[in-house]
Structures are given as C-alpha cells and as structure tokens.
Amino acid sequence: xxxxxxxxxxxxxxxxxxxxxxxxxxxxxxxxxxxxxxxxxxxxxxxxxxxxxxxxxxxxxxxxxxxxxxxxxxxxxxxxxxxxxxxxxxxxxxxxxxxxxxxxxxxxxxxxxxxxxxxxxxxxxxxxxxxxxxxxxxxxxxxxxxxxxxxxxxxxxxxxxxxxxxxxxxxxxxxxxxxxxxxxxxxxxxxxxxxxxxxxxxxxxxxxxxxxxxxxxxxxxxxxxxxxxxxxxxxxxxxxxxxxxxxxxxxxxxxxxxxxxxxxxxxxxxxxxxxxxxxxxxxxxxxxxxxxxxxxxxxxxxxxxxxxxxxxxxxxxxxxxxxxxxxxxxxxxxxxxxxxxxxxxxxxxxxxxx
Length: 354
Known about the structure:
This is Ornithine cyclodeaminase. With 354 residues, the chain is of the alpha/beta class. It contains 11 helices and 17 strands.
C-alpha cells in the first residue's frame, strides 16, 4: 500500500511502519539487501562514534525478564528503542523479544519515524554481528556453528552468508524442533546444513561460533575445551546481569571486542571478569585505531549486547527507504494548532465542528 509521495507531508503526520509494513519492506527490498544496507549504516555510524551521546540502556528488571529503553543522538537526530527480553514468553506462545522505536529531529524535537522494531532488531543484530566478523573472523572462513536456533538464527546465517561468504552451517538447539525450523527456513538459500546433536558436535570444523540462546541465568553453552585456536566467537544471546553463555576460561584466552564497555560489563560475558579486564571497543577497530584479528591462531570474541547506536543506524536506514517502498502509514501524532500557544483553543474549535 502506498501513501503520500513524501515521507513527511505535514509536521503533524508521522510515518509509522507497522509489522505488516516491515514484512512487506523486507520482501520488496530483499532480506540480503536489507542486511547489507543496515550493516553499511552501522559501520558509517560507528566510524563517527565520538559524535554520539552514549549511556547504558535504562533497564527495569524483574524475576521473569527485562524491559529497556535505549536512547542516543548524534546531535542532529535522536533515536530510542523500547525493547523487552522475556525468555518464558516462548512457552506461552509469545515472542521473547519485542520492540518499537522512534527517530526524531533534534532541531525541532518532532518525531520523523515510528516503527516496529521486533523484526528490525533481528535484522540489525545480524547485521552488527557480520560487521564485527568482517574485522575479527578468520580469513576465508566458510563454516559457522549456530548454537540456539530460535528467532534470530536465520537472520544471522543470511547476514554471514551475504557479508562474509559463509555457506556451511552446523545447527544445534536443545529443542530439535527449533533446529528443524531453522533448517527448513534456510532451505534453498545456498547453505550446506548439518543438524547436530550437541553443542560439541556443532563447533567441530567451524571457524565461527555464534551463540544465540535466551536463557536468563548463568549458563555454560561453550566450555573451554570446545574452542580451538583461530576461532571467532559471536556471543549474542539475550544479555542481562546474570546471563552468560561462555565459560570464564574462554574469555581469559580470547581477545575481547565490545560495543560500549559500561553496558557490556553489566550485561555481557565480561561480567564474569574483573571490572578492569582489558577489552577493545569495536569502533576503534573500524576507524583503524586498534587492530582486529592479528594472527591465524588468535581467538576473537565479539561480546555483543546490542547498543543504541545500532538501532539509530537501523532506523536511519529504514527512514531512507520510505519513499522507495511506500510501506508506511501517516499517523496524526503531533498537535498542530494554527497558533502554537493556543492548544486549548484547538480543542474548543474541534468541539464546535462536531
């Protein structure tokens, strides 16, 4: 469905991308092109990292999950995402992660885009993983193990295929139904897929290991003996205090790369380590200040927890596609009286027209 030819025809109308709009956008553009596009926007924004306002996400934790706000601004545009993480939801027929986001103009404070971000977060998370892996994974890697075959797994596989050329997947999940789902969804997309009976089996022969589980308790998805020299680990499972996937010994022999240390030390794998344990910020690698992979035998770990700048990038990318796709609806979101100081008068005039 197409609406106005311009994404913002009037200041009181804000483009809204619904779940259906997002699905149609992915189908119109193609998931591979969207992943590559979002990755390019992320890399561009990480290269100007120092221009952004940065803060750890604002979290409300409960015994069953977490609700978070993730804000940032580059001084010209502002964005935030509302997101939750509730692992128990799957058993209740609900999504583990849901999200929506807003992009706004800093000069006026007016929103310029409101969007669902459950699907968009899946896309940007996968794009972020692939951006990091381009700097950290072994050269000519072609095989990835994915441990945890839930909602994020297919996006990860497609991002690594499109941006790194991964064409062999080794899949494992504690629920074999999830593995079958993932394999079926990726059928016919150019992958050689092996269904594995354990995490140990999954990592055999894999140069890249992606852990993407949602268990919100201390857990050990990878033990030290499972990780050989020269491997890149992409640790992206649902992060929060008390959530881990990797044994501490793996961290101690890895070069660890993170998005924003103050947030990762609270929620990431490195919460297991001393507060001053050295880590490398990924933006520094992207701009050439620090080295990424430096040797064939190096174990690299991207301790990804997701950061607001990635959502900013994804929303910017989506906003820039609106005119191309027309997949949005204009919502009457901003009160726009003829006289800005006469908000109450606007209500009275509306009553007179009834």
